[in-house]
Design the sequence.
């Protein structure tokens, strides 16, 4: 069965960076784009961007272009998102999610990882 | 960016009741719309895609409709397990955008 397993919660200091992981299983990793979504404290959702695991091609929401960097490791079926120069505004739950091959919506989501930025 | 205006922000309904949640896009999104259900502490789950197609395994009491800029999610015969937040998402154009969400509670 399809599973997207995300890394543990992170507590990071302002100005630092954090790298979140999303390990895929139960399907062919390179066949599906991985997207990342931010949810700030139970509020709504913001699309950050996506990566094509096969080619490494990325597309970012302009709002997150200088904040997030998406990468993959095909040898371990893992997608990563690095968030840089963290501030309190980056404290949120981050989800990885898989885009279906036949459309542009998301059929499976990771369990989410909470990032807290605090000194 | 396409703005998604979702209403109501919260909704209280009784078991067995029918509820409707609306989403309005700031421009025509040509049915490029999905609805997700999110229970507390859980990740969103796909309910409806392409505005009116039911995702595999989703109960048939959920349905989606609409076109152009106006879309809605209807839940017939509300069950206790439907207590959750609901979000619409447009994927017609990048950046993908979501509605602010509707929190559904039992009366």
Sequence:
């Amino acid at each position: 069965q399809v599973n997207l397993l995300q890394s543990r919660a992170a507590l990071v200091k302002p100005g630092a960076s954090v790298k979140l992981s999303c390990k895929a299983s139960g399907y062919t990793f390179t066949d599906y784009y991985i997207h990342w979504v931010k949810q700030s404290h139970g509020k709504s959702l913001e699309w950050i961007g996506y990566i094509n695991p096969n080619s490494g091609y990325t597309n970012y929401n302009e709002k997150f272009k200088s904040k997030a960097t998406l990468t993959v490791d095909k040898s371990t079926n893992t997608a990563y998102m690095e968030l840089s120069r963290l501030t309190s505004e980056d404290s949120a739950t981050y989800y990885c999610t898989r885009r279906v091959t036949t459309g542009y919506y998301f059929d499976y989501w990771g369990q989410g990882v909470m990032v807290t930025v605090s000194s | 960016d396409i703005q998604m205006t979702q209403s109501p922000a919260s909704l209280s309904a009784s078991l067995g009741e029918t509820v409707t949640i609306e989403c309005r896009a700031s421009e025509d999104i040509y049915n490029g719309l999905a609805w997700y259900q999110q229970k507390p502490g859980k990740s969103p789950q796909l309910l409806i895609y392409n505005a009116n197609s039911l995702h595999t395994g989703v109960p048939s009491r959920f349905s989606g409709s609409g076109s152009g800029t106006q879309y809605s999610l209807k839940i017939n015969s509300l069950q206790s397990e439907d207590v959750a937040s609901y979000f619409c998402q447009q994927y017609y154009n990048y950046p993908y955008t979501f509605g602010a969400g509707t929190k559904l509670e039992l009366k």
Observations:
- Chain A touches chain B at residues 35, 43-47, 59, 61-63, 95, 97, 100, 103-107, 109-112 (CB under 8 Å).
- Chain A has no helices and eleven strands.
- Chain A has a mean pLDDT of 96.
